Amino acid sequence: MSIVIRDVREHELDSVLALNNNAGLAILPLDAAKIRRFYETAEYFRIAERDGNMAGFLVGYGSDSEHDSCNFAWFQQRYPSFFYIDRIVVASRRRGGGVGRAFYADAQSYAELRYPQMACEVFLDHGADAALLFHGSFGFREVGQNTMPEVDVRASMLLKDLCSYGWVKETYGENLPDVPWVGHTRRPLAARPTGT
Predict the structure, then answer these.
(1) Residues 168-193: pLDDT tens digits?
(2) Could you tell me which CATH number the domain at 3-173 has?
(3) Average pLDDT per 10 consecutive residues for the chain, totaling 196 residues
């Protein structure tokens, strides 16, 4: 019954796409090209497994990325350095079972070593109370709203200060220790071993 969070593997992209497109109105649909772009460019692209089955995924970008999301651009225009959660999807049968909390703990552990803030959005037009409560319980606060012009969806723009970042930056600068749990930035696709 444990939850395992690990980097996505290339052969799993079709499963990730299906999971995304079955998630309901709170998540925008994707196509294979967009999933491939996440795989090639996302700083953080991890899946959760529970009982050996894919239970969800989370995609994140650092503020200096060239990500093509209008919500990401909204944060870039207002904040100099942040880690952006583009999307988190949890399989419907796994919701309420701790997968989302495990993802946010893992993403925060990664982000707080590199960024002073973590950003995300919650769509407001499709019954957002549970998602807003979930994010509020993790310390996120609304810093504005944005209407996504291409889909006419209004989003609550959420931000969280990462209190460990200052100490890590002062102590280690850009030279984080080479230990497995630090989870160094994903390598570009060309640098990954074949079959991973």
Answers:
(1) 999 999 888 888 878 655 544 434 44
(2) 3.40.630.30
(3) 90 95 82 95 95 92 94 97 95 71 94 97 83 92 93 93 95 87 55 41
Specify the residue for token string 């969070």.
5
DSSP the chain: --EEEEE--GGGHHHHHHHHHTS-TTS----HHHHHHHHHH-SEEEEEEETTEEEEEEEEEETTS----HHHHHHHTT-SS-EEEEEEEE-GGGTTTTHHHHHHHHHHHHHTTT-SEEEEEEESSS--HHHHHHHHHTT-EEEEEEEETTTTEEEEEEEEE-TTHHHHHHHHTT-----GGG-PPPPPGGGSPTT-
Query: Residue 97: what pLDDT?
Result: 67
Contact 72, 64 (CB under 8 A): no
**Gap between the Cα atoms of 97 and 123, Å rounded:** 22
Q: What is the pLDDT of residue 6?
A: 94
**Short-list 95, 195, 116, CA closest to 163:** 116
- What pLDDT is stored for residue 181 in this prediction? 76
Owner of token pair 């225009």? 77
**Cα(89)–Cα(21) distance, integer angstroms:** 10
